[in-house]
């Protein structure tokens, strides 16, 4: 390898790019905020509006009017926003005028993370001391008053911790921090530091989204009915199922025998009723549009099954769901791809 | 201002560091206990008083002299407003060292030492960083029982070092070594207490002298 003994000026020049993104001092940001406020008032005067009630939207409109720009990239156009939005939230310069850093762990490199670990360890020590005192007084360790809800809460994720500390946290560091927190929580007298621990735990919404079954509605004659909507491929259907019926089914104002000549489609329509054993008991009026013959039949089947949920017990609803009556069929026509004849079929392969 | 800086240098013990500790205190804090004969480092032999049942005993008279020199030096550095960095890689005393540093108003580093901290500081921290003016080692070895990287880096960057060297440590590159025990909690607590008191004393004296100067 060659060793550079006499260097050229090009090599000696400082590598500006290697120092990372520019850091802003607090004084700089303050000056920017003052300049922004002054500029806002000037702009309001220029536009002839009241400087006190000049909102951000007014500023944007004024700038768009005074500096019209045809550039496509919205971020390249003239911009006048509050400095806190323009300059990213980052660590300002960490040391004062005499050069002494502000934080006592500055020279470690990751000052916020290590100070966090230091604080957490201090809480651990105080809890242990408290425990020792209690043992010295009563010679018994008090039981935990109330077990922390383990299922309802989770610890902060790595990204959330990074946002909190404003500096990068590695996976190893993160796992160490979580281990320390768990150790703290495991002690019997950890209730003292509950407030500190809550800063790092988040609530988890436990319940899954429950499907709400609508109650029965009653029309002018006093007959109970309920509605349901269904879809299959491109067909959309709405069904209204009436109680105390004779098993008459009307589609778009036409009887099913005339609308669906094919037996298979009529079977599809009757399947929900047959499954529940209520063939002659309900009347149905439906509207359907789009799709083809089979798709419309499937759509009406789903719509009627959804409507029947209101007439039936929860157990039977569960049976219907397991039978697949309440699931939307996700199969749709697959698109044709370029270089192939159809969605799957390739062009005929010719040897020469 | 000139008088403030030159006046302490004329006295041998301007901050009266000798009265902070006595031989009995060192003995009670078990500072004289070293490691076993097999762990002995060749360069520590001048500081060792003798060997009893295979365990090395450190000469406390020499320790007293070295400790007095080291504390005097730290006091002078603190008087001139220098940055003092406490370094120790012992997990048991990490919290203690950090709290001592915070109490003095100085800095501590008891975690994993990133390679370019002193030598590559302008890129790691940003342009215009001020490096520490004194490194104080409460334990010269790292977790792998090797000399701490910071000793070599401080020697490279011309930063003076004060360090507690045990019988298995290498006292070569340290400017003010203090032969003594670095494993017992009692010994480390004594060192922390001594450093804290010297630094606070030096800073108070500086503030007093500045106040006196302003009045004149």
Automatic annotation (TrEMBL), chain A:
The record's Gene Ontology biological-process terms are: translation
Q: Which UniProt keywords apply?
A: Mitochondrion, Ribonucleoprotein, Ribosomal protein, Transit peptide
| Record-level Gene Ontology MF annotations | RNA binding; structural constituent of ribosome
Q: Which domain of life is it from?
A: Eukaryota
> What is any one of the record's Gene Ontology cellular component terms?
mitochondrial small ribosomal subunit
* Chain residue ranges for the region called Disordered: 330-352
UniProt key word Mitochondrion? yes
Principal cellular location given in the protein's record: mitochondrion
Location(s), subcellular: Mitochondrion
The record's annotation in Gene3D superfamilies points to: 3.30.230.10
Q: Is Coiled coil among this UniProt entry's keywords?
A: no
One Pfam family, please name it: Ribosomal_S9
PANTHER family per the record?
RIBOSOMAL PROTEIN S9 (PTHR21569), SMALL RIBOSOMAL SUBUNIT PROTEIN US9M (PTHR21569:SF1)
Report the sequence similarity comment from the record.
Belongs to the universal ribosomal protein uS9 family.
Q: What is this protein called?
A: Small ribosomal subunit protein uS9m
Native species? Certhia familiaris (Eurasian treecreeper)
Source gene?
A: Mrps9
From TrEMBL, chain B:
GO biological process: one example = translation
Q: Does the keyword Ribosomal protein apply?
A: yes
What InterPro entries does the annotation carry?
Answer: Ribosomal_uS2, Ribosomal_uS2_bac/mit/plastid, Ribosomal_uS2_CS, Ribosomal_uS2_flav_dom_sf
Taxonomic lineage is: Eukaryota, Metazoa, Chordata, Craniata, Vertebrata
This protein's name: Small ribosomal subunit protein uS2m
A GO term, aspect molecular function: structural constituent of ribosome
Q: What are the entry keywords?
A: Mitochondrion, Ribonucleoprotein, Ribosomal protein
- Cite a GO CC annotation: mitochondrial inner membrane
What the protein does? Required for mitoribosome formation and stability, and mitochondrial translation.
Question: Where is the major localization of this protein?
Answer: mitochondrion
Q: Where in the cell is it found?
A: Mitochondrion
- State whether keyword Methyltransferase applies: no
Family membership = Belongs to the universal ribosomal protein uS2 family.
Q: Which organism is it from?
A: Certhia brachydactyla
